[in-house]
Amino acid sequence: MPPPAFAEAVCNGRFPDLSIYLFAKGTPWQRAYVKVQHLEPVNLYAGERSDRWLEFGEEVLILKRRGPGSGKKSVEVSGPTDIDILRFDGTCATVRQEMVASYMTGAVRVAPVVWKYLDPDIQEALLKDKGVARASDKERPACKGSTMKHPGEPCVKAMTALSDAIGVALRLGVAVPAPEKLPRWQP
Predict the structure, then answer these.
(1) Is 140 within a domain?
(2) Where in the sequence is the domain holding 36, given as residue range(s)?
(3) Considering the entire predicted model, what is its pTM?
(4) Domain count, the chain
């Protein structure tokens, strides 16, 4: 897991480029998969939270553990452990550890990414994947005139398809550059 101060900085802001970079194939971050049908994304930090609930099979990265067993104390106390997770869309949520599994629970889902919020260099790298390029071509007209807070049904479907294509491309190994906007890495 990353250093606690870095995790807190990530969760106090919104870094969609960073999440794409951290989800790339071969990165060392611990992945988890939501194992309940729906889960409300509660961000305990000042950062933005997604309006979309986590869904069964959604892939997330574990940023930080909180609660019993999360520190380096010599005495262990039983009780629930919460984890801070990073979603594919760059938002964080704090959930109970037992709500996620360390193995794929079925078809992998990702939180929808707003393409226009991604850095042009990351967009360019992702567009090298044919699936992403096709999905991006369909997303643009479907979301034209739609607001990101309340997108229309065609836009939601197109954003979901594009996000899924990005997730597949990253799992297959498409290389993305490090984002320009990053929180400070503090051990």
Answers:
(1) yes
(2) 4-101
(3) 0.82
(4) 2
Each residue's pLDDT, cut to its tens digit, for the chain (187 residues) gives: 787 888 888 888 777 888 898 888 888 888 999 998 888 887 788 777 777 888 898 899 999 888 655 555 544 556 678 889 999 888 889 888 888 988 887 788 888 888 888 899 999 999 999 999 999 999 888 888 766 667 778 888 998 999 999 999 999 999 999 888 777 776 5
Token pair for residue 150? Answer: 């309340």
* Rounded Cα gap, residues 175 and 107, in angstroms: 23
CA distance 118 to 53: 21
Same domain, 146 and 77: no
**Six-digit token pair at 76?**
């262990």
- Rounded to the nearest angstrom, the gap between the alpha carbon of residue 89 and the centroid of all alpha carbons in its chain is 5
